[in-house]
Amino acid sequence: MSFQNPWWTDRVKIYHDEHVSKISSLKPRFVIPPPEGNLLVMGPRQVGKTTFIKTTIMSILERGVKPTEVFFFSCDSLKDKDDLVSLLSQYRSLVNSEGGFIFLDEVTFVRDWNVGLLHLFNAGYLRNSTIYVTGSTSLYLRRETLPGRPLNKVMMYPLNFRLFFDTFFRRLNVNTASLFDVKGFYSNALRLVPYIAELNRALMEYLRKGGFLATNYVEGDPLPPLYEIYKDAVLSDLAKLGRDERTFREVVEKIIESYGSRISENTVAKRTSIGSHNTVSSYLNLAEDLFVLRIFRKVEGNRVNNKSFKKVYFIDPFIYRVMKRYTKGVGALDESDMPHVVEGVVGEHLAREYERIGYTFFKGGKEVDFVVRNLGIEVKWGSGNLKDLRMEKGYVLTLDEVGGNGEKVMLPVSIFLYLASSDRVFYGR
């Protein structure tokens, strides 16, 4: 217990922590201000949740809080709620019987952790305390986590393109715009046209490095030094859940092969050794719960068709590269990859900002890449035409073309992503 909390004996030891010292030495320094209240912070492995916790601890100690009132524990070694209850009971009885700050990292793999935490709330062990817990899977969060207790659930994703540009390039004085006001969005977009060369250069960098902080602090290509770390993080979580790596690999390989196209569980099952479409479906849902990928379903009017074909993208372009190397042996982005990877980036950005994002498909082969309510987004990457959008209202996204016609406009992908994204790190759901 004390090994994970060296500041109990000397508060300046927080600056020796590997996460704190690394982020403090980097330029630019990216420190995330914590939201208020008790938090459950969800997000993919290696996204920076532990760094967020450690820099928050640093800020708390710098405010003069008594060091023993700040408790951190990485929960990878805990098996179930009994271990968790025992741990916090010991902390309260041996170290600090008063209130304070409690940080439980990667708690969601502890069996029935929420039941144990609720017991501690009810028993008074967490009185006058602020609780932060983190996790890398949303698998157990489909039901209420702590009934009657405030625990705000937030998602922490890799940096979106706006934050990426603001952090590693420069901040532009243009606010996030609503997609549904197409004319207003287009008007704001025109203000960014003078920066198109810089925005496009940044987008190419984003496609190569993604939005993970660690990948962007590596000189050159981050895949060679970080591939094993990111791959093993996913496979480790898979093993903890008792799932078969070979099945996971086959599913991922078919996603890579059909990237940007509609797929069905039946097709994947028939083209692999898996055999069962139910098994394929369970692994797709699992990968989404582990924040590896995002599934987009067909939208028909105001209804989501869960039985129709799906479009599946990885939540970050760097994860695409990791999974491509994992299944194909090479993680380089070929020219043929670019349109589909860009399409996935657009879809991910939309899904973070808006509810019920899907795609639609009309008879005769007419598809709209993404649909948000009555608005469509078609991603062409190279060149495009307003006629490419088979809806009355929306956007056609290209590399560098600009044009407008009332409720249908054409914009560069980089400008669209910058305007459509917020500057927040945490997303509530």
Task: Explain what the structure shows.
InterPro entries: AAA_14, DUF4143, P-loop_NTPase. It comes from Metallosphaera hakonensis JCM 8857 = DSM 7519. Residues 237-382 form the DUF4143 domain. 39% of the residues lie in helices and 19% in strands. The chain contains 15 helices and 14 strands. An eight-stranded mixed sheet has the order 7-6-8-9-10-11-13-12. A six-stranded mixed sheet has the order 2-3-4-1-5-14, with helices on one face. The chain starts with 17 loop residues before the first helix and ends with a strand. The model has no long low-confidence stretch (mean pLDDT 91).
Compose a concise summary of this entry:
The chain has 429 residues and is of the alpha/beta class. The chain is 39% helix and 19% strand. The chain is built from 15 helices and 14 strands.
Biggest beta sheet attributes: 8 strands, mixed
Strand content: 15-25%
- How many domains comprise the coordinates? 2
Which structural class do the helices and strands define?
A: alpha/beta
Question: Helix tally?
Answer: 15
Q: What overall form do the CA principal axes indicate?
A: globular
Succession of helices and strands: HEHEHEHEEHHHHHHHHEEHHEEEEEEHE
End-to-end gap: 33 Å
Q: What is the topology, as strand order, of the major beta sheet?
A: 7-6-8-9-10-11-13-12
How many E strands?
14
Mean pLDDT: 91
In the predicted model, the low-confidence regions spanning at least 5 consecutive residues are: none
Helix content: 25-40%
Radius of gyration: 23 Å
Pfam families: AAA_14 (PF13173), DUF4143 (PF13635)
Domain AAA: 39-163
Protein name: AAA family ATPase
Domain DUF4143: 237-382
